[in-house]
UniProtKB/TrEMBL annotation:
Residue spans crossing the bilayer: 9-27, 39-60, 67-85, 91-117, 129-148, 154-174, 200-224, 236-254, 266-284, 296-315, 327-348, 354-374
UniProt membrane topology term: Multi-pass membrane protein
Protein name stated in the entry: MFS transporter
Naturally occurring in which organism (per UniProt): Paenibacillus sonchi
Keyword list, A-Z: Cell inner membrane, Cell membrane, Membrane, Transmembrane, Transmembrane helix, Transport
InterPro entries cross-referenced by the UniProt entry: MFS_assoc_dom, MFS_dom, MFS_trans_sf
Length: 393
């Protein structure tokens, strides 16, 4: 029970820090003279380098039994580097973002490994722990908008550093390594080869990629897009608060939805709501609509993400858990982030919000087709080689 409280505290302050800073980073970069195209290039390059480095974190975390240390560094280093985003030099911004992403890219796999194990041992659910990140992000996003409205956006690193420091304190109280964690017990390359040899898992990754690349239009460019149609920074904070807060019920009740519909159908439901949310914004690109449509965020991202993490955990062998989650994270956050940051940044610059929302709607629609294939394969009970004998699709 104490470990659950520590993890919830960690996720809460991680969300507060990220919500108060991440959504307004593009505003800070724009103030420094970058347009959305160059911002996308900067973020895509940093993410690509981070993907190449990510397997090294698995080795450090598991082979040397240093999961807690890696988790602490993943929070502390980006927080300290944030002050340098005030630089006027693109190369400095690129180096800072790249280093920050290299360290922060390992947060999700390692934090989730602690959360999944702790939830299983306590008879709780992963979603009930992960939802604290959403609550923190909701409060942080709104607080960040108020901070930016009353103070200079160039000092947004101050609350980010303070809140991240509290998250580090919670991380220090965690065990050195997640109990019963079997991460990276086999070759990372061998694990990837086994996973990618299955066409159903590839369809799942493809659908996740196409759906989540649209999230950069929200996570990276929402404030800029909102301002371009006449919205204010303070109202953008309200929209971000609504979006993050709706993750709370989704994360809390995701397990019940999954139990009733199944993992694959829950994935399909979440993907369909992605299409709906982007379709509404495409048809009605107005500030009030962009605020109201955020009530769909939890039903889209929240349900999809929890179902995806549990799906990967279910179909992969115990000794391949980290490999499966790492592959998913590389595709879902890494490659999707690269494409999304580049594509949506260019679309926003060249065609405005209308074109970016159209692209997001079409991308998520194709993702729905791939997830439908995965769901249909489940009904036919096609076995996946990476699963145990009792786990099938």
């Amino acid at each position: 029970m104490k470990k659950l409280l520590k993890l919830r505290g960690f996720y809460l302050f991680l969300g507060l820090a990220g919500g108060s800073f991440g959504s307004y980073l593009t505003l800070l970069l724009k103030q420094g003279g970058l347009d959305s195209g160059r911002i996308g290039m900067l973020m895509a390059t940093g993410t690509l380098i981070a993907i190449c480095i990510q397997p090294l974190w698995g080795v450090i975390s598991d082979r040397y039994n240093q999961a807690r240390l890696v988790l602490i560094l993943s929070v502390a280093v980006p927080a300290v580097l944030a002050v340098f985003y005030q630089s006027d030099y693109f190369i400095v911004l690129l180096v800072v973002y790249t280093l920050s992403t290299i360290f922060s890219s390992t947060q999700a796999p390692i934090a989730d490994s602690y959360a999944i194990v702790a939830a299983n041992k306590a008879g709780s659910t992963y979603g009930s722990i992960r939802m604290m990140l959403s609550i923190g992000a909701a409060v942080g996003a709104y607080a960040g908008s108020q901070y930016v409205s009353h103070f200079s956006v160039s000092t947004i690193w101050v609350p980010f550093l303070l809140l991240s420091s509290v998250a580090v304190v919670f991380a220090l109280t965690l065990p050195k390594q997640a109990e019963e964690n079997r991460m990276m017990s086999q070759s990372f390359s061998k694990g990837i080869k086994t996973l990618l040899g299955n066409k159903i898992f590839l369809a799942f990754l493809g659908g996740s990629f196409l759906v989540n690349q649209t999230m950069t239009a929200f996570g990276t460019y929402f404030v800029l897009a909102f301002q371009s149609v006449g919205g204010s920074t303070s109202h953008a904070g309200i929209a971000l608060f609504i979006a993050s807060f709706t993750n709370f019920p989704s994360m809390l009740y995701a397990s019940k939805v999954i139990k009733k519909l199944g993992r694959e159908r829950t994935l399909l439901l979440g993907a369909l709501i992605y299409v709906l949310r982007w379709g509404i914004q495409f048809a009605f690109p107005a500030p009030e609509v962009m605020i109201g449509v955020q009530v769909l965020h939890g039903l889209s991202f929240g349900l999809f993400y929890v179902a995806a993490v549990e799906y990967v955990s279910h179909i992969t062998l115990p000794e391949m858990q980290a490999t499966g989650q790492s592959v998913f994270n590389i595709v879902f956050s890494g490659f999707a982030g690269i494409l999304g940051n580049l594509l949506n940044g260019i679309l926003l610059r060249e065609g405005g919000v209308w074109l970016m929302n159209l692209s997001c709607m079409l991308s998520s629609a194709v993702g729905v087709l791939l997830i439908f294939y995965v769901s249909r394969s489940t009904r036919k009970r096609i076995l996946i080689p990476v699963a145990s004998e009792r786990a099938s699709l």
